[in-house]
Predict the structure.
Amino acid sequence: MLANFMMVVALLAAPPPAVATEFVGIPAGELRSTVRYEGDDGKRHVAAFAMASKAVTVRDFKTFVRVHPQWSRERVPSLLADAGYLSDADSARNDDAPVTHVSWFAAEAYCKSIQARLPDWAEWEYVAAADATRHDARSDSAWRARTFADGTPRAMDATPGAVANAYGVSGMHGAVWEWVGDYATLLGDADKRGSDDGDRLQFCGATGLSFANRDDYAILKRVALLSAMEPRSTLGNLGFRCARSSP
Amino acid sequence: MVRFLMCDQRLRSHSQGKQPMIRARGNVLLHYALACALGLGAPAAFAANHNDAPPPGDTIKAVLTAPPLVPPPTNRRSPAKVVVDLEVVEKDMRLADGVTYNFWTFGGTVPGSFIRVRQGDTVEFTLKNAHDSHMPHNIDLHAVSGQGGGAEATFTLPGHKTQFTFKALNPGLYVYHCATPPVGMHIANGMYGLILVEPPEGLPKVDKEFYVMQGDFYTEGKHGDPGLQAFSLEKAIDEHPTYVVFNGSEGALTGDNALTAKAGETIRMYVGNGGPNLVSSFHVIGEIFDKVYTEGGSKFQENVQTTLIPAGGSAIVEFKADVPGNFVLVDHSIFRTFHKGTLGILKVDGEKNPSIYSGQQKDEEYAPPTKTGH
């Protein structure tokens, strides 16, 4: 007990862990979002902000848990993370791979710990619209078709030769989906389950109503996934990255 | 005590109905009252009328089969509680020779597992989504009377399972499919199957039953381009499939996989069409359907050559294999058969019957028209 206490003190006294997160400045701009909120046309203004160039890795998150043991698999309350939380952290996974099986609560706590936050959906979508050379590649149907494999091992940014996008951000279309800070409002309702908006997502023939761009299937799939999540839920192919508002 | 309370509530909800309703249901009410007094559940009230019914409170686990197999008839004279347990699995499988596709499946096959219940059954349905699935899935069963056909109740994350219960009110052969957005993509990737709700008297006995389901597939590469083929949204929107096949792949019902029967046997095929886009002109070359339960409903048409099966619909076809031979299942929208894959074989063995079909009796030249002189 005393030893534990001493260790915590020692950790607190130690310099902040060496998680080197590189943030990339994203200029302000207009986004025509694929997601329509109630009664709008999908136009969003995205203020200048900074986006982490990579998703948080297994190694990054291990460091975080060492410093904040309340977020270890053993100690995290079930209110904040489901049974799958960090369930594959000890397996032989590459430490440089994006961390998965993390809840929204844990992702948010991680970003706070590095004086950052989760990106908003609009910020995420804005940056994810870019390919290697264009800030908005979404009118390129061949490129867009490749994004249909997002969240699978065949995702374009999961291939060995994948390069950063035009903003200098990597892995936006990787094998791992990513949490966003305001994911729960994606459907325009605090509790989307059972609401009209939630229903639109779940049933035949109604999906066209809530999406500005009906054939942006990568976004449809991503929103379908996030809308199924609770903030304590974890998945083997869902991770996160952090963002910072411009001062 | 709890059960008694439940029964009591059911009684009360019945008696809140209109007067004629109560009279019509008097007998049922009596059974409820009796069952409650005995501490039995409602199913027992019905079961009491039949000798071969399952014991009170009995729960039956549904037998699920992979295509082309069909579960055995329920052979029940009374409704039961039936448990269905189906898992969504995403996996690479063969689409054609040298061609693979990342299929999304109900139960690991395309089409998904065949489900067989009886009208009046209470079906407790559990949908699992495999841990290695990349996204959530759900199921809309056309046999369900209720919101979304169960879709809302079964929106299931990878590694999770969901459950809902429905009463099979209407008999018929129904399609089920995934209804998670983007719905078209889930169906195009193979997420469909059939559920049969038998009428109370069951279907007439036949010698062989088969499960056949058509589907159209849209790949980035052309028909026959080798390797793992990605889904093409453009071709799907344009409704220009690369493959149109029975049971999930070219060759699923040919060669060693051909359906087999003996001459003289009666055959029933449960035929579905998952789509997502095309309707099927289903035909068996060399046979006439003695009966077609059009669109999977209760009425049958007799003596049918080709039956139209809508996307998201079905038909039950029955015929007697009168003579031996290879009978070819096709979509008689015939270019699909020769260029896109809708071809299956029913191989019937047995004694020839020349009085029905002789086979070739002659092959000879006949005299050319005589030239008229000048």
Q: What stands out?
A: Helices of chain B lie at 2-15, 19-24, 26-38, 42-47, 183-188, 233-238, 335-339. The CA atoms of residues 191 and 314 of chain B lie 15 Å apart. Chain B has seven helices and 21 strands.
